[in-house]
Amino acid sequence: MNLQNAQTFYSRVAIISNDNKLGENYVTVLSVAQGILPIEFIPASNYLRKFLKSIDNIDIAIVDLNSVSIETLVKIRKKSSTLKIVCSSNNSISFNEISSLNIHGFLTKPEKYVELLDCICEVVRDKKYLGEDTLCSFYKNNYREESDLTNREYEVLFELSKSLSYKQIAEKLKISKDTVKKHLEHIYSKLDVPSRYEAVDQARKAQII
Questions:
Q1: Where in the chain are the domains?
Q2: Domain 134-205's class?
């Protein structure tokens, strides 16, 4: 996603990771996005203290939780309450574990670079972004007993929150338009809401959109 229309100024981004390859790839990917400059890769094990001293010069920090501890994440948040933090992790770390730290974005597929760009675009616009797997996990942990939504229904609900049409959701998930409608009927029934707007509103009240 192009960031050109998202803002008229540059957002300063730091990537905090002990995975050199991932950090360098993130720098390469984000360097082609409009509105992102400069981009700094910071190996946490060596330069975290330096980063914390200069944290006021950073707008967005991308923290790789596959190689950086949650304790480090807590230190970063304590140092700055206004810093926008995006976390990436494909291991068993639960979004619920870090949601109290006011995380602006969470990626469960760190090497899915298109999603990284989508996430940063949303965060730059002061919105929160959660990857599809994170959204599904959150609902499983918080609404599973009440709603019993299936994984596919979670995915449809996530796309619904983007204000996509039935046709667009069908194309995105590679299913038919009629199947989308059927999933939505199940979602409304399980969440006990009458329409797409109430379903999305419930998700937003849970602060995951």
A1: 11-130, 134-205
A2: mainly alpha
